């Protein structure tokens, strides 16, 4: 038996969160620098990663015990637990048959994900031959967006890159580019671009001649594929490779030893500077060149003058028309990175370096580019800039043009700036409407004191039972009256119209939208059940019997029609066979619905009204677009129903 000190794991003692309770996930950023704030702390002990990392994976990345084992130390109460055997680490690699299956899916499958993946690769200049040669496949990425609902999973298509494992023949690492065809606003914030569980920083060759004498090293997989396309058309014995870790991490020495000969590094240019002023592509190239111990040379990707595109890479250069000879020229001009140059490039103090004011001497002395200092805006300055932008009341096109520049000045992503802008705009609107809101609240509070005499609006034969019912339940009679009027409004013919002024064309539909607002256990449900549900159930039972009889009569008529000859049919059925009854029965009320279900019911009974009776008012709005991934127009359709305008839907089979 093993004894464990039971002490609850507190994530805030291990991870530093910002003021909004967000931080980079230690599991997602393991092995490389990842600034994405995907880890959220929703309580003292609760936390989750929007990229799908489990608590066990997060705690393993932090070096903390797995869930259920406590933290140890101190002298609190001890719990006696059975000793657990160390389970082997999860193997995320794939066998050869699995690779062949997913490659076949990408090439031959007709699913939407497969077609979108092929189209996206084609837009990057990657064809079927590259897919087959380099073992690119179609897989999937499973996301649990809400840790409290682990059974609700979201599945996205992913382009798989299979990297052979040198010491395990027949096994492959899997690096996934997750649904690159999904763009904002359809792409969820928590869906990461890449997924590479269990993939260390590994060298991947896209072109490796048997007698290669040197290597050209790219920053990303797609760049390496495009450069390999050019290399295969040349007699030069040059290997093309990249790392699965991008520019953020350097593979281990044993991996770098696999690179043939001298290594020329073609990393991205013109990257967005980080908060310290350095650029990821430049710094990554320096680290890799230094790790290659004299074999690494840094080359500049061919790029036009005054290029404004951030992150200019090998693929951009090839798309712009640069050829193999252009890359060879850049490789010939590549510089060898020495250790002391690395320190100078990072801004370390240089000792024993003579000062010189001669521009030519400076140009020949080091080939070192010192990045200009960059001081991003702080949070207070950012809010001031956004407030000033809102105060200008600019058109949306100008705001869209200014947001990227503002993001550059504060080292935030454009998406984050847009969110802050929208939240701040909403706050300002709330502040401006506060006076109006206060007046509305006063009016609502005064309305509580208003009372209606039911005898003045209803016949005594109806008013008396309603008053007795309200007294029995000890509820306001106005709530009972409101429920009755709403129920009756749904029984009007659908074409009923109340004209307020014919000269102006001012008319309204007699449909009512009402709600009973009260704390729990205040007898809201009994009122709705007695005044609305039970009477409508009587009508629905009658309608059901009539519908069954209509179908029975239709079937008998249909059998008779089929048994007659053509002459007898013309004699007994001059108008041919009558149309069939609707394929669904008539209902007068419902609690939940989809837009399609409601539309089909209205098509079947166009002259009948329907009463929506959701159990909770909030559920009516939260269920909007529930079956469309949050991308439908259910809320807008609800407003159209309120106006009584109706809708005309163009479908492939006609109007609806």
From TrEMBL:
Transmembrane segments: none annotated. Residues 63-91, 565-584 are annotated as: Disordered. It holds the Pfam family DUF3987. It comes from the Bacteria. Residues 77-86, 565-574 have a biased composition (Basic and acidic residues). InterPro entries: DUF3987, TOPRIM_DnaG/twinkle. This is DUF3987 domain-containing protein. It comes from Symploca sp. SIO1C4.
């Amino acid at each position: 038996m093993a004894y464990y000190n039971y002490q609850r794991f507190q994530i805030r003692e291990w991870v530093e969160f910002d003021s909004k309770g967000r931080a980079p996930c230690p599991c997602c950023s393991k092995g490389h620098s990842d600034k994405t704030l995907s880890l959220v702390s929703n309580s003292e002990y609760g936390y989750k990663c929007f990229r799908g990392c489990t608590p066990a994976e997060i705690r393993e990345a932090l070096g903390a015990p797995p869930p259920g084992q406590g933290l140890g130390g101190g002298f609190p109460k001890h719990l006696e637990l059975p000793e657990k055997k160390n389970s082997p680490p999860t193997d995320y690699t794939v066998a050869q048959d699995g690779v062949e299956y997913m490659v076949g899916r990408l090439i031959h499958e007709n699913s939407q994900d497969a077609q979108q993946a092929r189209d996206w690769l084609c837009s990057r200049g990657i064809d079927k031959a590259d897919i087959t040669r380099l073992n690119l496949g179609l897989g999937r990425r499973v996301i649990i967006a809400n840790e409290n609902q682990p059974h609700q999973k979201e599945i996205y298509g992913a382009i798989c890159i299979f990297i052979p494992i040198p010491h395990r023949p027949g096994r492959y690492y899997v690096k996934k580019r997750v649904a690159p065809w999904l763009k904002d606003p359809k792409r969820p914030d928590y869906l990461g671009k890449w997924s590479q569980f269990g993939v260390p920083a590994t060298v991947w060759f896209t072109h490796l001649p048997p007698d290669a004498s040197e290597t050209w090293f790219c920053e990303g997989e797609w760049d390496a594929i495009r450069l390999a396309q050019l290399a295969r058309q040349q007699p030069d014995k040059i290997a093309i490779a990249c790392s699965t870790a991008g520019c953020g991490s350097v593979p281990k020495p044993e991996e770098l030893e696999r690179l043939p000969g001298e290594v020329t590094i073609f990393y991205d240019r013109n990257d967005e500077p980080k908060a310290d002023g350095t650029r990821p592509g430049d710094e990554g190239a320096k680290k890799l060149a230094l790790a290659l111990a004299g074999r690494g040379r840094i080359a500049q990707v061919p790029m036009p003058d005054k290029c404004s595109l951030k992150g200019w890479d090998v693929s951009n250069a090839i798309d712009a028309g640069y050829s193999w000879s252009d890359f060879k020229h850049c490789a010939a001009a590549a510089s060898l990175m020495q250790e002391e140059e690395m320190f100078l490039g990072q801004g370390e103090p240089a000792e024993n370096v003579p000062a010189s004011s001669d521009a030519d001497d400076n140009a020949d002395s080091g080939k070192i580019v010192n990045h200009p200092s960059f001081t991003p805006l702080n949070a207070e300055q950012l809010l001031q800039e956004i407030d000033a932008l809102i105060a200008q009341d600019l058109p949306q096109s100008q705001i869209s043009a200014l947001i990227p520049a503002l993001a550059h000045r504060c080292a935030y992503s454009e998406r984050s700036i847009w969110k802050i802008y929208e939240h701040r705009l909403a706050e300002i609107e709330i502040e401006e409407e506060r006076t109006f809101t206060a007046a509305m609240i006063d009016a609502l509070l005064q309305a509580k004191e208003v009372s209606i005499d039911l005898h003045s609006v209803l016949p005594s034969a109806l008013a008396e039972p309603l008053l007795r019912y309200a007294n029995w339940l000890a509820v306001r009679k106005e709530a009972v009256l409101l429920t009755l009027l709403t129920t009756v409004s749904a029984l009007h013919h659908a074409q009923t119209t109340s004209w307020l002024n014919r000269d102006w064309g001012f008319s309204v539909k007699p449909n009512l939208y009402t709600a009973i607002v009260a704390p729990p256990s205040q007898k809201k449900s009994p009122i709705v059940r007695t005044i609305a549900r039970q009477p409508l159930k009587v009508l629905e039972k009658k309608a059901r019997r009539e519908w069954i009889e209509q179908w029975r009569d239709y079937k008998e008529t249909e059998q008779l029609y089929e048994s007659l000859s053509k002459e007898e049919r013309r004699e007994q059925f001059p108008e041919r066979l009558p149309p069939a009854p609707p394929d669904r029965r008539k209902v007068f009320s419902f609690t939940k619905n989809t837009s399609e279900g409601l539309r089909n019911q209205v098509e079947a009974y166009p002259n009948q009204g329907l009463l929506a009776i959701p159990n909770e008012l909030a559920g009516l709005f939260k269920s909007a677009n529930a079956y469309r991934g949050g991308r439908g127009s259910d809320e807008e359709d609800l407003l159209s129903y309120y106006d009584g305008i109706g809708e005309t839907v163009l479908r492939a089979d006609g109007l609806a």
